[in-house]
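Backbone-to-sequence.
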């Protein structure tokens, strides 16, 4: 692929991810997501890859259920 084509693809991915991105306070993650999509481009849609990226990064996230459990444990102490 030519450099011009690579730059056009990067711009397309960056614009597409930016349009879908809902975490304005995390531009660092948006950049990482763009890199992930670029590295995996062609395997799935940009939307699918964005969801995959976020799913991988959120695997250790704390859920509402986790917070309730933690709260109950703290009350029992």
């Amino acid at each position: 692929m030519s450099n011009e084509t690579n730059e056009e693809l990067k711009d397309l991915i960056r614009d597409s991810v930016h349009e879908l991105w809902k975490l304005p306070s995390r531009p660092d993650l948006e950049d990482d997501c763009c890199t992930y999509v670029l590295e995996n481009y062609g395997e799935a849609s940009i939307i699918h890859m964005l969801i995959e990226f976020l799913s991988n990064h959120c695997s250790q996230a704390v859920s509402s259920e986790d917070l309730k459990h933690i709260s109950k444990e703290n009350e029992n102490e």
